Hints:
Blueprint: E1 4-8, H1 15-26, E2 30-32, H2 33-41, H3 45-52, H4 54-69, E3 75-77, H5 86-94, E4 96-102, H6 105-112, H7 126-141, E5 146-149, H8 155-169
Parallel strand pairs: 1-3, 1-4, 2-3, 4-5
The structure holds shikimate-3-phosphate (S3P).
Amino acid sequence: MKKNIVLVGFMGAGKTLVSKRLSEILKRPRVSIDELIVAAEQRSIAAIFAESGETYFRQREKEITAQIALQENLVIDCGGGVVLQEENIQQLKKNGILFYLSASPDVIYGRTKDKRDRPLLSIPNPQAKIQELLNQRRPFYAQADFTIDTDGQTVEDTAQEVLAKLKAII
Ligand code: S3P
């Protein structure tokens, strides 16, 4: 069995781009939990939050994570809040190796400030929110098998670091 490669981390940590690069290098299918939610709901993440609330989004995220976590040989791009529900971490760990892509608050702000469809940061003072959420979530992200600091790294650097860590354990 080829374990899934699961990328977790805060918004703007680079999960999407790094997962695409890993999928290309390893020739493994990539799935994005957020993209699956958007496809299932036929509306954007921002619309789901605005119309149905965050609790509803987290419920859909949990259902879709449970389905995807059963598969194998995937590169899985998780939304930044997937780690907030303990069941998600347990499910993803069954068939997967979790990589936490970390980044400092300033770097996260720089990488997210012009992007849309992130309702949690579409507020007047996103910098304070980034700091607050990062502080809250640190212990959850720390449950990953590996941590990779992405500050100052290119997508290629981070993808290569994931590959190096995989080589060391497989
Ligand atoms: C969220 C992160 C987003 C998306 C949603 C909530 C979070 O995914 O799932 O907006 O709680 O951190 P990205 O990390 O891919 O931006």
